[in-house]
Automatic annotation (TrEMBL):
InterPro entries per UniProt: ATPase_P-typ_cation-transptr_C, ATPase_P-typ_cation-transptr_N, ATPase_P-typ_cyto_dom_N, ATPase_P-typ_P_site, ATPase_P-typ_TM_dom_sf, ATPase_P-typ_transduc_dom_A_sf, ATPase_P-type_domA, HAD-like_sf
Major localization listed first in the record, in broad terms: membrane
UniProt membrane topology term: Multi-pass membrane protein
Reactions mediated catalytically: Ca(2+)(in) + ATP + H2O = Ca(2+)(out) + ADP + phosphate + H(+)
Subcellular location, record wording: Membrane
Membrane-spanning residues: 278-295, 307-326, 462-482, 512-538, 939-957, 963-982, 1002-1025, 1031-1055, 1076-1094, 1106-1126
UniProt domain Cation-transporting P-type ATPase C-terminal: residue ranges: 959-1128
EC number of this enzyme: 7.2.2.10
Entry-linked Gene3D superfamilies: Calcium-transporting ATPase, cytoplasmic domain N, Calcium-transporting ATPase, cytoplasmic transduction domain A, Calcium-transporting ATPase, transmembrane domain, HAD superfamily/HAD-like
Family classification: Belongs to the cation transport ATPase (P-type) (TC 3.A.3) family. Type IIB subfamily.
Gene Ontology CC terms: plasma membrane
Protein name: Calcium-transporting ATPase
Cited function: This magnesium-dependent enzyme catalyzes the hydrolysis of ATP coupled with the translocation of calcium from the cytosol out of the cell or into organelles.
Amino acid sequence: MLSRSSDCSTSLLDELDINLRAKRRWRMAYLALRVVRVMLELPKEIISRASNYEGDDEIVHYSFVPNIEDDEDAGLKEMAKDKDPATGLSEHGGVFTAGLATSDYTKSHYDYGKFLHDITTITFTRAKKRWRMAFAAIYAVRAMLSLPKEIVAKRNNYKHDSEIFHSFSHTAPDIELGTALDLKPRTKSLTDAYGFVPNPDFDHAGLTTMVKERDLGAVNESGGVIGIAASLRTNPENGIYGNDLHVNKRREVYGSNTYHKQPPKGLLYFVMDALKDTTILILCVCAALSLGFGIKEHGAKEGWYEGGSIFVAVFIVIVVSALSNFRQELQFDKLSKISSNIKIEVLRDRQRQQVSIFDIVVGDVVFLKLGDQIPADGLFLDGRSLQVDESSMTGESDHVEVDSAKNPFLLSGAKVVDGYAQMLVTSVGMNTAWGEMMSSISQDTNERTPLQARLDKLTSTIGKVGLIVAFLVLVVLLIRYFTGNTKDEYGNKEYSGSNKNIDNVLNGVVRIVSAAVTIVVVAIPEGLPLAVTLTLAYSMKRMMKDQAMVRKLQACETMGSATVICTDKTGTLTKNEMEVTKFWLGQEPIEKHNSIKQYVSELFHQGVGLNTTGSVYIPLSGSKPNISGSPTEKAILYWAVSDLGMDMEKMKPSYDILHVETFNSEKKRSGVLIKKKEDKSIHVHWKGAAEMIVAMCSSYYETDGAIKSLDEESRSNIEKIIQGMAASSLRCIAFAHTQILEEEVEYSNGEKTHPRLKEDELILLGVVGLKDPCRPGVLNAVKICRSAGVQIKMITGDNVFTAKAIATECGILQIGDEANYGEQVIEGVEFRNYTHQERMEKVDNILVMARSSPFDKLLMVQCLKQKNHVVAVTGDGTNDAPALKEADIGLSMGIQGTEVAKESSDIIILDDNFNSVATVLRWGRCVYNNIQKFIQFQLTVNVAALVINFIAAVSAGDVPLTAVQLLWVNLIMDTLGALALATERPTNELMQKQPVGRTAPLITNIMWRNLLFQALYQIAVLLILQFRGESIFNVTGGVNDTLIFNTFVLCQVFNEFNSRSMEKQNVFKGIHRNRLFIGIVGVTILLQVVMVEFLKKFADTEKLNLFQWVTCILIAAVSWPIGWIVKCIPVPEEPVFEIIRRSIVTFKRNMRA
């Protein structure tokens, strides 16, 4: 499998010209002995010079990579450190024997065959050059040590090659040899060539069933979890190899961690859905009848125009609508994939690294922590106090304890509710029970938001009005037709009692019905749902760029109505880049850490290194340690490693961890119960919020290592130290310790025993202060929200002094308003202990809640909602889930947030930044505002079209706008208009208004003012053209109808500009930023020119001259000054319908009096 290494070995054997008559294994042995001979023949002076060469200790030490798991390689380890490698090798049986005791893989590989060939054929004449050969020999040994056992086994026909995968590689750093030899190492890993070789005797399907059915007996028969890990070629301590070839091979053999979900709906689905519209079906029937009668009456050459035109118009409307919906379906599907792309930690190449859950493969070692969703089926490897919620799989709400003895089974889809663990992945994707269930579930992208529900109601109301008008038009036209009051294009009566040609009668009736149905099509604002969809889709796409991912559509619109935002502190208002800046031991600050007594330092090592969910990986190169965990854990671990000299890997084997209490936001501390292997002593360590840990202590360590009683005076001094650090915006973490007896380890509740961590009479080790500065721009974002009428409340687990300092720095608390801090700042326990009435009275004034629990946050949200606030809440922990669900808008954190919190939220803030929360507020208001703009625009068209057609039908017996023309107007206002107005970006003016609240009407008084004046102007102008147009312009009836149609369409184009702003008189401000709006207006005008000038037969129009075009444009352009004047007219704040209702009530009351 390693062709390069094999070629190297073969090339060397050919060079030595050896007769290979014995077994093939002697070839490698002979080669190894030949290399040793080269080394033994070197004069002692060369070896001496090599030993004295600067840095040779590092070269020799790192070139030999022993197998740390082999008990028989102790001598080889010493040899690797020996200054005389030649002697060391000969004493251990030469390179070949030593090579078998080393690791299987190394990560650096050279073309040693060519290298040895070159150096053995070159004669060095000076001693100065010969020590280079010593280095070359050392590298030759390294080459042999780098050869995996599989190469040796394969060259000797060794049959048990599968055992090679039970050990893992150790990195051998590359060494620069110098310019004389000019040897450039190649860093291609041997595993890149090997990839992954599955165990042919292993039944993976049986393992999948074993885990699904929780068959503990079968697990034990397979050698337990460790035996199964060996069968999967996984080293539990090092993980699998991380190179692409190895991972891809595992994915090829065992499957990928993806689910076969239902594909998104196709374009044909939306076409068929559009065809289900009743009005469209009626139009199609009318078009078919009109087509048939037209062909029969006028022949196939010209008779198809009217019916065919309706068909084409209907087709265009259906296709445009279907394409718009299909595009949004694809976008929502894309966002769904992004939202499900969760990152999780795995162990590969001995390092913890984050990968997507879709990249997890069978054999991976996955780290699980509180709040994680289990990404695949697997088995428990190691961990503490693990409990999972399997309600999504089993429906049972009780938490399930998972351990290595009784229940090692972990199922995908379950959520970690307590503890932490390492899991061996046994099945992924469709091989898991969760995968089978998810494959039958399709994503519902037709979720109806509250605003869409309100618009559906509005659409229904307007549609009913349209139906009434259409019915009246139908009745009036039929009466006029059958009474002989209608004329054809030649001026003859269309219906005469003496001429009852059935074909002509049916053709006339079909034309009348088509006109009436078309009025319904125009009257029903079908573009409203499309406008909402377009606005939401556009906003969601833009919000993704602004670091906010929308999980639920309703959150976009609801956020625009938010009146209160309850935000976390850490990571949201602050950077979440923690650093230990202060360290107090007893009552003294520590600057020089080497002054700490050794045994006190060891206690700190225990309290930090064993009471953590983080990890430390120190590269062999000695570079900066790679630390994983939460920001707080990472800061403390880095401090312990860099300042206190902690070595976690060296320390951990010396202790047994008996029990762990993981950190949670209610207790605000974590603890560990450990036993020291050397003397069997048992220790308890606690770490957490400083004042809570101090309250558990009765004594403390002084700087000289002495233990002193924590009396009232010293306790008060330490509390002042904590308050002083907190007032400087530092997060204070304290460490405490005690040693207990064997009998104190467990307690019994009558049925079973439980491990116990002592929580009193502890010894305070020390207190550290962690600095977490505010994020840039937070102060400005808070100011913007306050100017928008949105109150910001900070709810944090930090103490009250830290909370005050950060809130003041962020602008939540105002400098100079300290007198009101008593009402504005409160601790969670105090708020919790209020009566319900007291909470309702005080909740509006509270701006900062310190030392709060998730339950306190939930209480706050409930009280605010009861006071009719629209509440947005940020959260990142599993315990925040109830508050996130209770809030009107739940905002979870994308970086620090747990999967439980994200699943409970409506929007995920991808960068955990409060600036992004303020951005979401802007976009929420923009969504609401854009929809209101479109409603105003569309209702103007509806009112004008209905009134014009009704009056013309009653008075003249015909409608001025044909079915095709009305369908074209419908296309303009429903699709193109929605697209133009729905893509307006948020403006600063939006953040200077007060929130609309829950009960505000969708159509405001300002909207009624704007649309009624514009509609009245259009009605007046078009009725003048209807009844006086022919005489004013001295044109025929056909040209006059075209003037009416052209003027009506251009009025809508100009009114689109008016609709860009409902209050501002300058409707052109910022228009250059919305290129889509300009493009749509341009396309609309271009298509209108084509309709009028080139599609006479299709659109039933006549060509217009330049004067007539200019006249139409000038009439339509008058809507701009009218809009400018109308916006100067003040309107009452109280909704107009509320005023009408109150007036009616008052009138009835007066009538009774």
